[in-house]
Design a protein that fits this description.
Blueprint (H helix, E strand, L loop, with lengths): L1 E6 L9 E5 L13 E6 L2 E11 L11 E2 L8 H14 L3 H8 L16 E7 L2 H10 L3 H12 L2 E2 L7 H6 L3 E7 L17 H12 L4 E6 L5 H14 L3 E5 L6 H12 L3 E4 L5 H12 L5 E4 L11 E7 L16 H12 L2 E6 L4 H9 L3 E5 L10 E6 H6 L7 H12 L3 E5 L8 E4 L16 E3 L4 E3 L6 E3 L12 E4 L3 H11 L5 E4 L9 H10 L5 E4 L12 E6 L13 H13 L10 E6 L5 H5 L5 H15 L6 E9 L2 H18 L4 E13 L2 E10 L2 H15 L5 E7 L5
Parallel strand pairs: 9-14, 9-15, 10-12, 10-13, 11-12, 13-14, 16-26, 17-24, 17-25, 23-24, 25-26
Antiparallel strand pairs: 1-2, 1-4, 3-4, 3-5, 6-7, 6-8, 18-22, 19-20, 20-21, 27-29, 27-30, 28-29
Helix pairs in contact: 1-2, 3-4, 6-7
């Protein structure tokens, strides 16, 4: 017997399997989708079995070992990986590696294993009962009485257990223990109201495989999701529930755990490697029927999926931003089709593409236009900051300050959104006007007051803060703009008694920090939560009655065709955090562009009104949903070499796709990152197969050029 093995090795970036001989002792253990240990030159590598044959070659090397008891890549996932590899112009092995948590990936050295614990059990009940009646040892009696109820870990028993082992009354055994521990939080399961029942029935009875559930914030989409999963479980099938942000998972997991008990596995990047390993194993062993998690949870190795739910489907976190650049939503469509399962896209602000497809009838459309508990949508006020600055109000408008004071007096809570972390946005010299940039990237450094460091948010470069300008050498370097740290500091200055929490990347690096901050705020240990966009989606705080958006223009000013859509999404989502219970909510949006349609229409809570404005612009400029987009990114350390190669690629594309729109090459949104220069070429197209074939041609033509690196992104989040 021989097997074809795919290993992660860079051979001119090509996917290639290698054939190995299987010794007789391993033949019964061989199946496609398992990992094996193989010799490769002077190395020993792990690889995936992708084929089984009977090659008669006498020169074949033998495999060293079979790693897995069960296949970790089933037939569906193997074929799915090939499809993703084609559609994203990515190497097949990188796709398979993305499907798996650490510990299941094929690597040069994998050390992650099951966690086993020593347990103690009684050997013969009657003998134990007789011994309890006769012994005078209180400690021994205590141990035996505990073990008569249940087996226990050795570490939980007193030292007399060793005596009992020597007497043959009890014995040791090893038991696998899962590392992830979740709190048993009880949530009251809410009955569906009339609108929710109607939406549920529409979804169940729809003949569409893909359904968009467009419900305003607070309309009770989560309750509908749980009811749909209940239905699927009653049919003996499995469910995948995706959420966009790690910060959302604590509240979602608590609600799902309360309802579905031990039927759930959890998969997201905030878990330790060991925890993810264990959760994945639960799925492989068919111990659970529901997976809740972020993007990569879409690859859960279920074999009988009944429903896939993607909450906040508009979120750009469902698209991986490095190779392979897959979209979890597109993968969900493929898995849904394979299993004949419904895919539910849920959002208060769906992507323009999703809403357009639902309006055209390609997707089913189910809408919820009222909040579930009869709560009223918040009043939204837009404040023109150009007028406020003339009055001396640079950071907080007068209306926002008065509203904060009012909420503090009422013992209610406040959310403040500023979509910039750090203390200040950049450092500028008041003498010569130069801006301090990262020495490795074409990006300004951000000052972080807590560490007194200037940091690059692209490559991670950091330096001690100084006021000396590197250009004119004067003591004139000043902090400009503001981030979450500055907002928190200024708020405390204005309201000395206020208790604050901050939620951004800097405060959530520690394991469990998301949940800790959310629980603290839920328990009213703070009056105000200040954060970046991670506080905008999915969170439910009954006492939050005021939401303040410090600067609504941070995304609007980016050179991105989706900037208005992202701005509208963010403002609508964060507005939805206010007034979710029986207390009325208010939202104050501070902006320098009060007449921009994305900002103006966020006031009305009418998504369709915004959609009608945005779709006209998309059509005029031939952007999605009227075209697909392919982004080709060319990077190199030598500027001239990189631009020359970029021009060659651009010329080659124009000759091949004369019917499509080709833009560039042009400098990327950030022209240099970590000492690598980047240029971009954009193709707007309708003929998907033609362009994918072309990109694969370019991949082959450029993969031997060591001076440049070419990356492909199909339907990018931004460019």
């Amino acid at each position: 017997m021989t097997i074809d093995v795919l290993v992660e090795i860079n051979l001119n970036k090509k996917d290639k399997t290698f054939t190995y001989l299987v010794p007789d002792k391993f033949k019964e253990d061989i199946s496609i989708g398992k990992r094996v240990l193989v010799p490769f030159g002077k190395q020993v590598l792990e690889g995936f079995i992708l084929g089984i044959g009977n090659d008669k070659s006498i020169d074949l090397k033998e495999i060293i070992d079979v790693i897995d008891k069960e296949a970790i890549l089933n037939k569906e996932l193997i074929e799915l990986g090939k499809k993703i590899s084609e559609d994203t112009v990515s190497n097949l092995v990188s796709v398979y590696q993305s499907m798996l948590p650490k510990g299941y990936k094929a690597s040069k050295k994998s050390t992650l294993k099951e966690k086993t614990v020593i347990y103690i059990k009684i050997n013969a009940k009657n003998e134990v009962l007789d011994y309890i009646a006769s012994t005078k040892s209180v400690k021994q009696k205590e141990v035996l009485e505990q073990l008569l109820v249940t087996d226990l870990p050795l570490k939980e028993l007193n030292s007399s257990v060793n005596t009992l082992i020597s007497k043959g009354l009890v014995s040791k055994y090893f038991k696998e223990e899962y590392r992830l521990k979740t709190d048993n939080v009880e949530h009251v399961v809410k009955e569906l109201n009339k609108d929710q029942i109607n939406a549920y029935n529409q979804i169940i009875n729809s003949d569409k495989d893909i359904i968009l559930l467009n419900g305003v914030t607070g309309s009770g989409k989560t309750e509908i999701y749980m009811s749909l999963i209940d239905k699927v479980l009653s049919l003996g099938k499995e469910a995948i529930m995706l959420v966009p942000e790690i910060s959302l998972t604590p509240q979602i997991i608590d609600r799902f755990k309360s309802h579905f008990k031990e039927e759930i596995a959890i998969l997201h990047s905030a878990l330790s490697d060991g925890e993810r390993y264990d959760e994945y194993k639960k799925i492989l062993k068919k111990e659970v029927k529901i997976v809740v998690g972020a993007r990569s949870a879409i690859f859960a190795p279920f074999t009988n999926i009944g429903i896939i739910i993607i909450d906040e489907e508009h979120s750009n976190t469902y698209k991986q931003d490095h190779n392979p650049r897959y979209s979890a939503i597109e993968v969900a469509f493929l898995r849904g089709k394979y299993h004949n399962a419904k895919v539910i896209l849920g959002s208060a602000t769906p992507t323009i593409e999703s809403y357009a497809r639902s309006k055209k009838g390609y997707y089913g459309l189910v809408e919820l236009k009222k909040r579930a508990n009869n709560a009223v949508l918040p009043i939204v006020n837009i404040v023109d900051m150009t007028k406020e600055i003339r009055k001396g109000n640079k950071l907080f408008s007068k209306e926002l300050l008065l509203s904060i004071e009012d909420r503090l007096n009422k013992k209610e809570q406040i959310l403040l959104l500023i979509n910039k972390r750090g203390y200040s946005n950049y450092l500028m010299c008041e003498n010569c006007g130069s801006v301090k940039k990262c020495p490795h990237c074409d990006i300004t450094l951000t000052y972080h007051k807590t560490s007194d460091m200037n940091r690059c948010h692209y490559c991670g470069y950091a330096e001690n803060n100084t006021n000396i300008c590197p250009e004119c050498k004067t003591n004139s370097l000043r902090q400009m703009g503001y981030g979450t740290e500055k907002v928190e500091e200024e708020l405390i200055k204005l309201f000395p008694s206020i208790k604050t929490l901050r939620m951004d990347i800097d405060t959530t690096t520690k394991k469990g920090s998301h949940k800790e901050i959310i629980n603290s705020f839920m328990n009213h240990e703070a009056d105000a939560l200040i954060g970046t966009q991670m506080i905008a989606k999915g969170l439910d705080f009954p006492l939050v009655t005021l939401v303040g958006v410090i600067n609504a223009d941070t995304i609007l000013n980016l050179p991105d065709f989706r900037s208005c859509e992202k701005t509208y999404d963010l403002l609508s989502q964060v507005s939805g955090r206010a007034g979710r219970s029986n207390l009325p909510g208010k939202v104050i949006i501070q902006t320098y562009n009060p007449d921009n349609y994305a900002i103006k229409l966020s006031k009305t809570h009418n998504y369709e009104e915004y959609y009608n404005e945005e779709i006209k612009i998309r059509k005029k400029l031939y952007y999605p949903p009227y075209s697909f987009i392919a982004l080709i990114k060319i990077g190199g350390k030598d500027f001239k070499e990189t631009i020359n190669e970029s021009n060659k690629i651009g010329d080659y594309i124009r000759k091949k796709v004369k019917e499509e729109v080709v833009l560039g090459p042009s400098v990327g949104s950030v022209s240099k990152i970590n000492n690598v220069y980047y240029f971009e070429i954009i193709i707007k197209y309708r003929n998907k197969e033609l362009v994918i074939d072309l990109l694969n041609e370019i991949k082959i033509l450029t993969e031997n050029n060591k001076k440049i690196k070419v990356e492909f992104d199909i339907n990018p989040n931004s460019f």
